């Protein structure tokens, strides 16, 4: 397991990477209190922020980078449940419910997170109603995301439709609104297949087809959705 190293702390009040998601979007007073919590650290690619089944001792806000969330069956099969991005808070449900972490969180590249101990985070929620509402809204969004993931896997008629759905979701989570939609995909084809519920070979074939049809463009880890509307119609 990679060991996180402390990083020079950047004030949440003047963060150049400010996100409208989660606890980056608070009143001035609440943000000042939030700024005093926790410690910021930068971890390298492959670093484990927490393991599935570990006691939930902290929450972590992603300031910069992407984090892969996954769970593993008793037989050793791994399922990637989400790629968390800037502004996402990790471990929220486990900390609030007092249960172990449901997933393992692994950095997909150099990643900066704000790590906050459970007790001080819960105390912060008790003193700021706005922050509590943010937490409730985020848990609701996580529930909806789990529902849509299940729906995609159960109802999409083709592997192409499932892959297209993952690409569109990733673009939206990355904040892409203009067309073409461009974002960085840090997953391998095998990992993307895991998310879409198909095989690596199928993902490679789907990518080749979509590139030929000029629906997407790929350059290294950079993905451009040239025709999102077309992707949305794949079933």
Write down the CATH topology of the largest domain.
Jelly Rolls
Uncertain residue ranges: 1-9
What class, by secondary structure content? alpha+beta
Percentage beta strand: 15-25%
Through-space gap between termini? 40 Å
The tally of domains stands at 2
Q: What would you report as the Rg, rounded to the nearest angstrom?
A: 18 Å
CATH class of the largest domain reads Mainly Beta
What would the average pLDDT be, to the nearest integer? 83
What is the chain-wise order of helices and strands?
EHEEEEEEHEEHHHEHHEEH
Can you tell me the CATH superfamily of the largest domain? Jelly Rolls
Summarize, please.
The protein is of the alpha+beta class.
What does this structure look like?
The protein is an alpha+beta fold and 235 residues long. Helices cover 40% and strands 23% of the residues. It has two domains: 5-141, Jelly Rolls, CATH 2.60.120; 154-233, Orthogonal Bundle (Arc Repressor Mutant, subunit A), CATH 1.10.10. It has helices spanning 28-35, 92-97, 118-127, 129-155, 159-173, 189-196, 200-212, 228-233; strands spanning 5-6, 39-43, 48-50, 58-64, 67-72, 78-84, 89-90, 104-107, 111-117, 181-184, 216-219, 222-225. Helix 3 (118-127) packs across helix 4 and helix 6 crosses helix 7 (200-212). The model is unreliable at 1-9 (pLDDT under 50).
Feature tags:
2 domains; single chain; four-stranded antiparallel sheet; 235 residues; Arc Repressor Mutant, subunit A; disordered N terminus; five-stranded antiparallel sheet
